[in-house]
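Need tokens for this chain, all 364 residues.
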Amino acid sequence: MQISIGVSMKADCKAAVDEALSKVNNPNLMVLLCAYDHLKEASQIISTKYADVPLIGTSTTSYYDTESSDKRMIVLSFGSDVSAEVGIIRNLSTAPLADIPEMEQKVSKISAGDKNTICLEFCTNDEERLVTSMNVALERAKIPVVGGTIFGYPDGATPFAMVNGTLYSDACCYALIKNNSGKIRTYSENIFGPMECGKTHIATKVNLENKELITLDGRPAADVYCEDAGVSKAELVDNVLVSPLGRVIGDEIFISSPYAIGNNGSLINYKKINENDSIQILELKDYDEIGNNTRKRMKEESSKISFVFSVNCIYRHLLFNQKNYMTSFLSAMKSVGPHVGVVGGGEQYKKQHVNQTMVCAVFE
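Here are the structure tokens for all 364 residues:
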């Protein structure tokens, strides 16, 4: 697959755009990743200069080479062997289904082949509703979702998803990307697992509206968490970095991260937990070994890797920095192939919204 990665650390937006665009040559799709303060101006410059080229993007902390930065501008330019359709799903908090018919039309136009098409997306909020809505359009064509919740904007600011130079709040921008010269394989990496002799609990009372887990097994959720994890309530929120909640579905575990203790000992989470869900308190496993196994699979399953795109959860990002592992992690990802990543406030993968996970798309 033909891909160019334009990068700039210039503080002046126009100068940064000029530098990031210097490698662009006849693109069929462009993706902009930049600082929040640059997003509006950079989007307008690029969409004007390449008016006929589909464009999506957002503000983010990005990964490139061996460093993360919230000041960097990256422009991904996908070449002639990529077919692409872009779009927006608006009103995520109220009525996202209104934009699904247009997405269905774009899915039909892209003519997805066997494991060569993905939906790359960046959303602002209401992830569970988004994933359910998107799969109305994507499921029949077997197009997997790989994406992230926009993270890293200033306190009090509004996050934006961008399509073709226009910024949207309460929305999701997406690109349907078809690789006409190889496969696109997707991966999800979980570095947590059940505690030794861990218990399985049932969510007995929840408030879906604010992602609140009120009780486990009829007891305050925070009490159950602290008992299993061996921490006090004062330590609970910080302990989530190494010990989140896991929603157990068959042999799979989908992570939900508590970020606050609510009234009467409830837990407020970044991912919804439903009543009667099976829940375990997880623990951090050998993340270096798990990562090495993930990257080994990537290399073994793709004959020639052209590009790797990842979304790494902010909690994993913080954990890796805390463990002084970030440089090692990014060096290892770079060893797989040209790699660009973003930090997400949550991750979307196939039919699920998850927390504390890395999701990847590997392009041949």
